[in-house]
Amino acid sequence: MVAGAFLPRTVGQAEGGTTNPKDAGRPLVAVTMGDPAGIGPEVVIRALTDENLPRDVSIIVVGSRGLLEERAGRFSLPFDPRSVAEPEECQQTAGLPALYEPEGLELSGLELGVASPRGGRASLAYIDQAVDWALAGRVEALVTGPINKEALSLTGCAYPGHTELLASRTGSRRATMMLVGGGLRVALATTHVPLRRVAGLLSTERLVTTIQVTDEALREWFGVSGPRIAVCALNPHAGDGGRLGTEDATTVAPAVAEARAKGVTCEGPLPADALFYHAKQGRYDAVVALYHDQGLIPVKLLAFEEAVNVTLGLPIIRTSVDHGTGYDIVSRGVASCQSLVEAVKLAAAFIKRRQSKQGLFSP
Predict the structure, then answer these.
(1) Among 213, 190, 197, 188, which Cα is nearest to 289's?
(2) pLDDT band, residue 94 (cuts 50/70/90)
(3) Phi/psi of residue 175, nearest 5 degrees
(4) Are residues 274 and 341 in the same domain?
(5) Is 181 in contact with 308 (CB distance < 8 Å)?
(6) How many CB atoms lie within 10 A of CB 207?
(7) What's 327's domain CATH number?
(8) Alpha carbons 117 and 294: distance in angstroms, whole number
(9) Under a CB-based contact definition with an 8 Å cutoff, are residues 340 and 31 in contact?
(10) Which residue range(s) make up the domain with 160?
(11) Distances (CA, A) of 72 to 75, 77, 146
(12) Rounded to two decimals, what is the model's pTM?
């Protein structure tokens, strides 16, 4: 067991003695609608009727019915989930999608494709409700739709994205962003920060934590026995003997050595321009990238529409779409739901892994 572990409890029993929908044999997954001015509502509607959506889980959408119905009508999409006041009511929906609408949100007349405080507040309200349920054990997993960082900032929110927000809400100091897709699993040592700040944020301690969390997730969430992890270099050619920077020798290499001493099978620092080819060929089970675009470009090149964002190191299961709010296409009706469907599928797989360990294992 590690920090942030799930507390042992009787399967089917949430905190406070509340009976979960999993008592009926069907785990419940909360799906947040995302920014109401973006493609999130369209993506959610499309996913609910997608033939590849898992049928062995129940879905409760946390969003706004009026806006979802408007978007469904705009694009001639079927949408008729049952409204519920509590997640436990999903036991009565026979596996059909349900909808929970937070109170107090005013979204009438919201301009599509434009970041706004109202859109940001709604995005946060959906997330807050779903996280509350997940922390209380009332849903088995959280799957999030896309949010807009500008809209969040307009509300005064200090967090640049889901990863940082969820780390704060759950009290986790080990939250780690991983992208899964195209045959790659890529964890990030830094996330939503300017490139000029990356070198200053990297430390041996931070990298060791990222490597360890990745190793634990591979074993426990993904079921990989004896995982192999590759760690990217920060500089071209891993610094080229110091001629292209010293960070790889002074920060990255010591972190890899320390992680090895702690029992993790890892290599690095390795030049990123060649590393991802070898990872794709199966030499490594995961890659630790040092900054956002270093890790996300390879994944999105290989799996732009179906990659999934996973937050490791939380006391709850959380997966997400790998894309943004798509303000530029929000009125066109062409948004793909593949990433959301894959996010639900991966969450369902994690739920099964956790249940197989009797609720005692941690991300």
Answers:
(1) 188
(2) low
(3) -60, 130
(4) no
(5) yes
(6) 25
(7) 3.40.718.10
(8) 31
(9) yes
(10) 1-175+317-363
(11) 5, 5, 18
(12) 0.88
Other CB atoms within 10 Å distance of the CB of residue 192: 14
pLDDT at 5 over 80: no
Lowest mean pLDDT among 20-24, 28-32, 74-78, 80-84: 20-24
Which ranges of the chain would DSSP assign to H, the alpha helix?
40-48, 65-74, 117-135, 149-154, 162-170, 198-201, 204-220, 247, 253-261, 272-280, 292-303, 338-356
What 3-state DSSP class applies to 312? strand
114 with 222, same domain: the answer is no
Structural domain total, the chain:
2
- Asked if 213 and 176 touch (Cβ cutoff 8 Å), the reply is yes
User: What per-residue string of b and e applies to 223-260 under the rule 16 or more CB within 10 Å gives b?
Assistant: eeeebbbbbbbbbeebbeeeeebebbbebbbebbebbe
Asked if residue 15 has pLDDT above 70, the reply is: no
Alpha carbon 83 to its chain's center: 25
DSSP annotation of 291: S
